[in-house]
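Lab channel / #folding
Pinned by the channel admin:
"Please post every new chain as: sequence first, then the structure tokens as a reply. Keep commentary short and put observations after the output so the thread stays searchable."

First post following the new format, from NK:
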Amino acid sequence: MLPTRTRPVDDPRNGPVLLRRDLLAQGHDDRSIRRLLRGGDLRRIRHGAYVAASIWDALDDAGRFGLLGRAVVRQAKTPVVLSHTSGLPEFGAPTWGFDLTQVHVTRTDGLAGRREAGVRQHRGLLRPSDLVVVNGVPVMHPARLSLECTTLGNPEAALCVVNHFLHAGLTSLESLRSQMVEMETWPGRRPAEVVVRLADRRIESVGESRVLWLCYQQSLPKPIPQYEVRDSDGVLLGRVDFAWPELGVFLEFDGMVKYEKLLRPGERASDVVVREKRREEEICAATGWRCIRVTWADLANPARLAAKIRAALRRAAA
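Reply from TO:
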């Protein structure tokens, strides 16, 4: 079981979520609540749940989805835990590719769940090890969250989640496989098997996970993630996102998150781009390898990107 986890106190994702009853206890009434909303001091998360405007405005879509989940848990009339995609924001896990308008919770009393506007309650067998507390919020363990996400119809997005948790050290392939045993009676088990088979803790970003999924979906040769390229003397030239070493081809995914991670003090993103381009040229000059660069825009057209990669591999093989 994971230990209780917390975010820094000043992280805007911590809320707090204010319910109508909280505001009434502070001396407000419905008229003053409406006045706060009109004046821009409060933002409505959902009916009867609010947050300070300064907090709401500082959050991205994933952060706001996280507050929506917290509001649902606080308003629930039965014991529930954040599950499926709704547990992801508490761990800072990626929500790319998922519906961020519907909150998923699982009842802990074993009774049948129900649907209401924007909320889906699930019923399932819960083991003590399935439940953790994150930032003071009850949420499913990352191993179970990962596999729950595979049941929501987007295995590519689920692979991004699984790789994130593996890379962060919050779960392991052994834990995922053990959790899959518990899934035998769940509907839609097949996607989970595919995702776990492809999962790799070396993958560092959503973009890289999507490239790996593309290779699988388009029947391309499986590349090696985070490959260390060395010269003929064994000197390390650099680590690349993916490589087909037997063909002398490597692939780099260009995303702003990657460039932000590589920023040095006083640098701009353009400085990182130039440095990365120079590194690519040095690797190619020293080894004779070819480089394929992939962007978010490329991933929007999988068939065309696959054709580009396939052509590069064929040229290298020839």
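NK: The radius of gyration is 23 Å.
TO: also worth noting, The chain has two domains: 12-202, 209-317.
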